[in-house]
Inverse folding.
């Protein structure tokens, strides 16, 4: 398996992901809700995964909504439930500024996440192309298991947030993964995951 890795930044890059990537690399029609666009494109919903979910009040396998995707990746590190948190704080008498701060996950950042695209070796694509339905199922299961193992390894060995002077301060290995595109809807396996980190 090979993995293409690319940083996700708030602004135009995030907009591209929301317009095209989350609907299977197609083109999302303007003003179409995310779930409706995914249904039209035949793309299954994204599901949250990762060891950082509990810290955010998310559950493994929970559907990724558009607001939940926008907040951490498009709003420079906001809580996936930032809208709900802010509404609750305002109801409790907090000012709009205080409520807005309550929805932050920490420091405001430019790189809001990392995009990973997992691709099997070319020989697997050939096996997929000439295989029957049972072969496809076996390849899909092996591919999905390989992705889970790679993500676990990244959380265990790689994922650390560095900040401060010369990156001297670090935290983490509690990653939050949002996989909005599943390989089972493509002509051959190939999955994309977005990663965000929480300290």
């Amino acid at each position: 398996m090979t993995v293409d890795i690319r940083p996700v930044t708030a602004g135009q890059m995030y907009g591209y992901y929301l317009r095209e990537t989350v609907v299977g690399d197609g083109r999302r029609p303007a003003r179409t809700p995310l779930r409706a666009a995914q249904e039209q494109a035949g793309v299954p919903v994204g599901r949250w995964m990762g060891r950082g979910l509990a810290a955010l009040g998310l559950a493994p396998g929970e559907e990724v909504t558009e607001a939940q995707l926008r907040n951490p990746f498009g709003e420079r590190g906001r809580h996936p439930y930032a809208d709900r948190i802010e509404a609750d704080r305002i109801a409790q008498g907090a000012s709009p500024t205080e409520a807005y701060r309550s929805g932050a996950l920490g420091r405001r950042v430019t790189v809001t996440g990392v995009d990973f695209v997992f691709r099997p070796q070319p020989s697997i694509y050939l096996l997929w192309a000439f295989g029957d339905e049972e072969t496809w199922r076996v390849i899909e299961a092996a591919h999905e298991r390989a992705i889970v193992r790679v993500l676990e390894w990244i959380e265990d060995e790689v994922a650390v947030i560095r900040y401060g002077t010369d990156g001297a301060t670090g935290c983490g290995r509690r990653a939050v993964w949002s996989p909005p595109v599943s390989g089972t809807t493509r002509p051959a396996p190939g999955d994309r995951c977005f990663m965000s980190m929480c300290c």
Observations:
- The first strand starts at residue 2 and ends at 9.
- Strands lie at 2-9, 111-119, 161-163, 169-171, 175-181, 191-197.
- DSSP finds eight helices and six strands in the chain.
- Confidence is low (pLDDT under 50) at residues 180-189.
